[in-house]
Amino acid sequence: MYITCLDLEGVLVPEIWIAFAEATGIPELKKTTRDEPDYDKLMAYRIGILKEHGLGLKEIQDVIATIEPLEGAKEFLDELRSITQVIIISDTFNQFATPLMKKLGWPTIFCNTLEVSDSGEVTGFKMRVENSKYTTVRALQSIGYDTIASGDSYNDLGMIKASKAGFLFRSTEKIIADNPDVPAYETYAELLDAIKAAMV
Question: What is the C-alpha separation between 60 and 98, in angstroms, rounded?
Answer without folding.
Answer: 13
